[in-house]
Fold:
Amino acid sequence: MSKTKLLALILAAAALLALPFTVSGAWMDIANQILLASIGALALMLLTGFAGQISLGHAGLLAAGAFTAGILSRELGAPFWVGIPAAGLTGALLGVIFGLPSLRLRGIYLAVSTLALHFLVVYLGGEYETRRGFSTGILIDPPMVFGIELWDPFAWYPVLLVGAILTYALSRNLLKSRTGRAWAAIHDTEPVAAALGINVARTKLWAFVITSAITAMAGALFAYYRGFVSIEAFSLFVTIQYVAMIIIGGMGSLTGAVLGAAFVTLLPHLIEGATRYLPTGGAISGSVFAMNYAAFGLIMIAFLVFEPGGLMGIARRLKGRG
Structure:
């Protein structure tokens, strides 16, 4: 590791450790949202950016993990340490079921098949809420970790930070492993990968299983963090947001996934803050939601057209000039 990278790593670690002592509760909540989004974005980056498999079922996997944790907590009183791995197992099972079409389908056909996952989970989650009478969602008691009750953003921050760091480290190690090299091979050219002796079917299926498990655990963490689960929180727009994270961050980069997660999470708050300083800020305050959608779409198009390499592409170009 070069001295520049080492210095950047030390500064980043210092900033992350100092953050709880320098920001308000509202900004701490936003930081936690970024950490949660980073875990899900890293999983999608592994699947799409490295393994080359398209998925539009990301919100469904998040919902599956969240409902697994919520149901276990509400119906069985299962603790946090049971809910998270159980959500991972649920995600892995769904990864097997909806990864099987990837063995025969590609491109837009594969994307549509994974979209079925979203609608299936949304339907099942909605049915559960209706039949159990949870019209406002499933309430989850604050979990206990090492004897500490996680009830506010400051208590949650170290847990989510460790979760995001572990996910990044796991993803990085996966990419360096035989599995990661096989993903890279089938991402480039499947026939060549098969000629090299790679079991293409098994490799693609593993990509879905591993990333689905990580995504479902991210959904479970989201449920515990918010203290409730509602199917309303997992619309198709959530999937689009995660796709935007890996595009804006830079396809094929784990750091890009984290940067994209931060960018997409911060964007609505930045737009809302900016409207307060406009001369007609009060008059357009009711249109902030629509402005967020419009800005989100325009930024996605701008990156796709003018900077396909995303934020990491910009960083590489600036580094080259320096």
